[in-house]
Amino acid sequence: MKLNIIAKESGKSNAQALFFVKKSVQFSAILTEDGEKQVESVLNGMSDGVFEDLEFLEIDGVATIFVNAAKERGISSLDHLRMAAYRLAQRASKKQIPVVSLMLADAAPEQFKSIAHGLAYADYKFDAYKSIKKESFQVTFEIIAGEHTAEFKKIAEDVAVEQKAIVLAKNLINTPAADLTPADFVERARTIAKYTDGLTIKVRDMKQLEKEGFMGHVTVGKGSSRPPFMVTLSYDGTKPARGSRADRTSADHLVIVGKGLCFDTGGLCLKPPKSMPEMISDMSGAATTLAAIQAIATLKIPMKVSAVLCLAENAIGNMSVLPGDIFTAKNGKTVMVDNTDAEGRLVLSDGLAEAGLIGATHIVDLATLTGAMVRALGYAVAGFFCNDDDLARAVINCGEDCCEKFWSMPLEEEYADGLKDKFADLKNTGSDAGAISAALFLQEFLPADTAWAHLDIAGTAFVDKKWKYTDYGATGFGVQTLIELARRMGAGSLSEACGSYEAV
Ligand code: BES
Ligand code: ZN
Ligand code: ZN
User: Fold this and answer.
1) Ligand whose nearest atom lies closest to the CA of 372
2) What pLDDT shows up at residue 96?
3) How far apart are CA 300 and CA 222, in angstroms?
4) In this predicted model, which residue has the larger pLDDT, 138 or 21?
5) How far is CA 103 from CA 34, 54, 82, 122, in A?
6) Counting CB atoms within 10 angstroms of each CB, which of 143, 206, 370, 432 has the fewest?
7) Which of the ligands is closest to the CA of residue 261?
8) pLDDT for 336-351, tens place per residue?
9) Quick one: which H or E segment has residue 350?
10) 32 CB-near residues (< 8 Å, 6+ apart)
11) Catalytic position from the list 91, 204, 222, 345
């Protein structure tokens, strides 16, 4: 997919196809007057049901693609536009149309951004393991941008960086565990740090983790012949010398912590076979985190951002943690391992401690943490838990603007007693409300005075059917919201960034 952004007016295009979004009043605003009239004249006299999904018609010798943009329930207008663009790009590629013109001179910047993302999503395929690889036809999209030309060019550059990060996250998540061990993941992170200006990396292996007392992480990872690693990546965009876009500096330090279980068998509390293959995606939190910091550094966002990747494999071996074992976490609390399948919260407890050690003011952790979250909210909405109103509003608002839905869940103290153990300070399972208990467990390891959001992406990270702009597998969910959060934090304080959302 190639984007060519030009100023010229619609109706005079040399493209082989024109793109119009019809059927919804709200989208007619993105058409230029010429284009609108041209389509209207053809549409006159046609009944509403003519356009199934996408239809081609000849207008003055030019194929015109109509996208059914009728409002679907629950889909925001920006997302709707993104889905229409995605379908258009897929269809144009299948029909081998070399150049498609999009009349967007009247589009708002956020509408264009959504369209550009939608077009790019159509390019993704994960065919590394297919013996026969199908080449897809490359379409050039000519964006008629009128007076927005310069602005849209800038947006297109940002979208390209964001999409590169999304593709990175999806590829990591879709790769089977045998080909993406914790050590392989470390190598990927090292390569990214090497080629991304301003990004530094620190890697701790199991020996180092043990020496420093990150025993939650070690307890989970020691059962596997593929040992665990903790990776800390740092970027400081508040230093003008790095050529950042900073005209002011933020004192905030955002630390993103990602659950990186390259595979989760459940350990000795073995998972049933049906739910196991999907556990190649149990490192989605770490993949999303790595992707986000890569983009944040590439975009030179004027913020201090770090990323902590908690990489391990939850496997069965003669060194696997035994149910009933007790360890001391990095922050000094003792934990009894009641269920070896509740391993994510154990590695994250040490990830949160690391975030505190490197001076986080704000922590966002991402984890495919609980099956309970999948049952509660499904694949379309991620639940999150937050101890700070400004951060909570920012997560929801950034998500909404990126077409990623987040729902605020309670850190309900009534369930805290369920985490108490007879011998140790805590056990790693609660008695009720699985997703809330997991969040309450994590809160026990939160460094003092830190704003914190825990995003449980168990349902949204990976889909087992076609959904929006994903065929099957990793969605890349969360990458855009994290980038947007850093962008807004870098542009001002979090309370300014959180906008006017009322309902948290
Ligand atoms: N990785 C799983 C959670 C998960 C389930 C992610 C489905 C994606 C899809 C996690 O490690 C897990 O197994 N959690 C247990 C915790 C329980 C034993 C307290 C769960 O949710 O069943
Ligand atoms: Zn598990
Ligand atoms: Zn897990």
Assistant:
1) 1
2) 86
3) 37
4) 138
5) 9, 17, 15, 19
6) 432
7) 3
8) 999 999 999 999 999 9
9) helix 344-357
10) 9, 10, 11, 103, 105, 106, 144, 146
11) 345
CA of 137 to the centre of ligand 3 (A): 38
Sheet holding 326-328, edge to edge: 326-328, 334-336, 426-427
CA 485 – ligand 2 centroid, Å: 28
Q: What is the pLDDT of residues 48-95, one digit of tens each?
A: 444 444 556 666 666 666 665 566 788 888 898 898 889 889 888 988
- Catalytic-residue membership of 271: yes
Closest C-alpha to ligand 1, atom 13: 341
pLDDT single digits (tens) 293-336: 999 999 999 999 999 999 999 999 999 999 999 999 999 999 99
CA 295 – ligand 3 centroid, Å: 26
User: How much is the pLDDT for 247?
Assistant: 52
Question: Across the beta sheet with 17-22, what order do the strands follow?
Answer: 2-6, 140-144, 99-103, 17-22, 62-68, 54-59
Structure tokens at 206: 């199991």
pLDDT band at residue 187 under the 50/70/90 scheme? very high
- Say which of 271, 300, 333, 468 is annotated catalytic: 271
Q: How far is the CA of 371 from the centre of ligand 1 (A)?
A: 5
Place of tokens 């007790």: 326
Residues with CB under 6 A from ligand 1: 264, 278, 282, 339, 341-344, 368-372, 374, 429, 434, 458
Active site residue 125: no
Q: How far is the CA of 62 from the centre of ligand 3 (A)?
A: 52
What is the band of 7 on the pLDDT scale with cuts at 50, 70, 90? Answer: confident
DSSP assignment string, 60-84: TTEEEEEEE----TT--HHHHHHHH
Residue to probe by mutation, ligand 1, list 370, 427, 432, most atoms within 8 Å of CB: 370
The DSSP symbol for 332 reads S
Q: Could you give phi then psi for residue 44, rounded to 5 degrees?
A: -55, 130
Q: DSSP secondary-structure letter at 98?
A: S
Amino acid 372: pLDDT: 98
Q: Report which protein residue has its CA nearest ligand 1's atom 22.
A: 371
Measured by CA distance, the residue closest to atom 8 of ligand 1 is 458
Residue of 50, 6, 10, 14 lying closest to 30 (CA atoms) = 10
